[in-house]
Every structure is written in C-alpha cells, then in structure tokens.
Amino acid sequence: MEYQPEPMNTSAVVVDEQIVALIEKLARNNHEVWAARRLAEGWRYGPRRDDTRKEHPGLVPYSDLSEGEKAYDRSTVVETIRAILAMGYRIERV
C-alpha cells in the first residue's frame, strides 16, 4: 500500500494579525526544540548533514538560519495554527 498524505484542508482559515505576530516566536521555538533534541542525541554542527557522524548544518541559532530554513519552520507553525482554528479552537492571549 502506498502512503497518501491527507493533511487537513486549512485554505479557508484566516489567521489574524495577533496570530501573525506569534508565528515568528513559535517558529524560533520550533527550531530550538528540534536543535535541543538533536544535541541531546549526540548531534553537533557540521557543514553538511552527515547521519553517520551526526553532523547537521542547521544546528545554529535560529537567527543564523537561511531564510529558506526559517520559512520551513514558519510553514510548520502556520499549518498547525490553521489546523487548530479549523477544528474550532480559539487562540487567545490572556
């Protein structure tokens, strides 16, 4: 059986300005969580990904990532937020 991804359709979900401001903070945190997990698993910075040596070029502060790498983290956050809103939840700052 071939896997066919079926992500939730979130194209109709509108993300308001308050949430847009949150996206960058969550994207940064997403990177920090990923990097902390990698470092705990024994990975370290390397100029290119090498699974055998456990080296990865993304093991740098979020601010040092390329815009393409930051965009990947942002898109993950945006789709998660859209899915939360599509399921009827609200995101409120208290």
Structure notes:
The chain is mainly alpha-helical and 94 residues long. It has one domain (17-86): Globin-like (Orthogonal Bundle), CATH 1.10.490.160. Helix content is 47%, strand content 4%. A two-stranded parallel ribbon has the order 1-2. Helix 1 packs across helix 2 (67-86). The longest helix has 24 residues, at 17-40. The model has no long low-confidence stretch (mean pLDDT 95).
Secondary-structure map:
Blueprint: H1 17-40, E1 44-45, E2 55-56, H2 67-86
Parallel strand pairs: 1-2
Helix pairs in contact: 1-2
Protein traits:
94 residues; mainly alpha; Globin-like; two-stranded parallel ribbon; 2 helices; 2 strands; 4% strand; globular
Brief account:
The termini are far apart.
Structural class: mainly alpha
**What is the helix content?**
40-55%
Strand composition percent:
under 5%
Largest sheet: 2 strands, parallel
Strand order of the largest sheet: 1-2
User: In whole angstroms, how far apart are the ends?
Assistant: 46 Å
Which H/E pattern describes the elements? HEEH
How many beta-strand runs?
2
Give the CATH topology.
Globin-like
What spatial form do the alpha-carbon principal axes imply? globular
What is the CATH level 1 assignment? Mainly Alpha
* Poorly predicted regions: none
CATH architecture descriptor: Orthogonal Bundle
Count of structural domains: 1
| Average pLDDT taken over every residue | 95
Tally of alpha and pi helices? 2
Radius of gyration: 16 Å
